[in-house]
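Lecture notes, unit on protein representations.

Consider one protein chain, 160 amino acids long.
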Amino acid sequence: MGGASEIDTRRAAGKHKGTSGAPRDISGSPYSPESLQEANTVKLSTGLSAALLLSVLTTGCVYVDGELVHDDDWKATQDKNRSAISELNMGMSRDQVIAKLGAPADSEAFTQDGEEVRVLFYRTRHAHSDGETTRDETTPLVFRSDKLVGWGDAVYQSLR
């Protein structure tokens, strides 16, 4: 019986001993080197095609926490927020504002001169295409003792 090199030589030549001990031609079988190479080529090209298709389909898409955010979602949100903020009245309660605008993008709370101050930040402009809403893309709404006392950067900065 030959060693490993003899078996490798027979496999490379497409000849392999069958169960009967007689050499048989495996070049047309699904396990021949040519067939395996062809199968790997098909798998690779299918994988590349799928990756290319996924890349084309998701170009310009933003995912936040694993959820697809359509390009127009943030535009619609900031348009809705700008419109709703323009209809606010001084003295409105924080609950009334949240009922009108929904949950803020961010918020903070602190006390100043013994009075509770809450600031709700709503997205109203676009500055970065990073899928995140940052403070420079928001309008702050300022509440003292749960009553709206103003909005905008000037009001917020006057508190600091």
